[in-house]
Structures are given as C-alpha cells and as structure tokens.
Amino acid sequence: MKQFFRYLYDCRYVWLWALLSGAVFSIVFALYGIPAGAVGYPLLMSAIFGLIFLVLGFLRYRKKHLGLNSLNPEEAPCAEYLPRADSLTERDYQTLVFREEAANRAGKEAWDSARKDMNDYYAAWVHQIKAPIAVMRVMLQQTDTQENRELAAELFRIEQYVEMALCYVRLGEGSSDLVIQEYDLDDIIRKAVRKFAGQFIRRKIRLVYNGTDVRVLTDEKWLLFIIEQLLSNAVKYTPEGGTVTITVDDKKQLVVTDTGIGISKEDLPRIFEKGYTGYNGRLDKKSTGIGLYLCRTAADKLGHRLLAQSEPGKGSRFIVDLDMYPFQAE
Q: Which positions fall inside the Histidine kinase domain (predicted)?
C-alpha cells in the first residue's frame, strides 16, 4: 500500500488535472442547461478508463521499483542494468549515474594500483631486511657477553616488528594466504615456545606447558602468529620471576595466562582496536597497539574467537577458542 500511495503522490498533478477538468466540464454543461446525464455518462467512462490506466501505470511503476532494488553494485556496474528512462528527467539522472560510476571506477583502479605498489614495497622491504638481521644475529652469537645478549634481545624485537609489518600487509590482501586443514596443536605451540625460549630465560620468567594431543582445523602459519603475539605480550608485561602458563582444555580452548601487570577495566574492551595502546601502552613508549589488532583480525579470518580477561596487578588471560568454525573441512 505504501508503494501505491507513493505512486498516487508522484502522479498527483495528473489526477488533480483530471478532477479539475471534470469539475470544469460539469460547471460549463450546467450553465448551458445540458442534462446531467449527458455529463455523468462521459465522466463515468473517463473515470473507468482513467482507473485502468492508473492500475497499469502502478504495475509498471512497481516493476521498475523492484528492478532498481534488485541491482547489486558489488556484482556488476548498475549503469549497465538500469531500466529504460521514461522521461527526460530520468535520462538526466541516469547520465549523472554513468558519470559518477565512471569516476568511481577510475578512482578505485588508481587506489588498487597504489595499494598493490605499497604492498609489494613492504613485502620486498621485509624480505630484504631479514638478510642484515640474520648477519647481525650470527655476529652476536660469536661472543657470549652480557652486552651481546642485550643486543640479541633487541634484535629479536626488531625481527618481531618486521614480521608484524609483513603480516599486516598480508591480512589486508584477503584470505588467499590461508591454508586450512587439520594440524597438531602441540606442534604449533612448541614452535612458538622455542622461538621465545631465550626471552623467557633472559627475563627469568617461568613457562608452564604440559603438551596436548588436540588436533585443530586452522591455518598453521596464522595460528602460530597469534600465539607468538600473545607470548610476546606476556613476556613484555610480566616482571622477572613471573609465570606464563599455556593450557588447552577439552573444548579446544587455548589459554595463555600470565602474572603480569594486567589490563585496566577501562582498556579491556578496546585492546583489540587498531592502534589502541591504553594505559600500559603509555607506560611502554614502544607499544604500537597493532599486535592484538592483528591477532583479532587473523582469528576472525580463521573462524576462531579471541577473548581477553584481566585484573590489574594480577595478570591477564587470553583465550583462543579453536572450536568456533563457520565452515567445514572438505
């Protein structure tokens, strides 16, 4: 009914003209003394034909309305499927749509090209910077001194930031980098633990992990990235002598718990936002607010759920729910 009343409103000048014309004819015929039947019969016939044309016009109006609503600009350019213009005004509007769509298409092509160039540059830069990092690591391992250990720790952080930059670029390119299949969760966790073993020893932080025989449907590389980022934060915000615990329960929930400084209640709802560092980030001037954002983004792409629980002064608890899948293995 709303469409019908809208159609009547759009045709308001036509039927108002018809009513006004009928009134004029009735008045003129009455002034000339012509019988009312001579006026009523043609007016009745005109009203019937007018009603028929009104219904036909509404059906065409509704068909065009439904056709326009069914257009999806994401599937194909709307300008190629617009219905035929019935008036000069509609033709003018369609011309504006064609021009706007052409401008948007040209802008999108330029933006895609610039983004591709930027992604290619970052990918090339990451691979090039790995060579001097590897050389510096070998040089630092030649002599075991306290200074070299500190430099090796800082070099490890540099390597983390480099990997984070590459992951940031890859996550923006869609899901083409994903290889989804079943993996032994224990193997993935142990890879992350081995990578951070030196950091745990250097910071004198105790790591508790008893292994698991759980198999999960995921992408090994990206799940490993998530675990590494959680361990990195645990090491960063846990003081010397603290404990980091990794557990996996029967519901395939991977939990990383630390006894660090914790997260305030005000910051907890926003820690996965891009660039948000919170109170802890302001204490640590080197915090970027990107790590947990990339973890949440990667988890969403994998179909996992990432949760955080914390209490200031008592530590944090990050949960990766590996049993939440919107898809099935083929």
A: 124-326
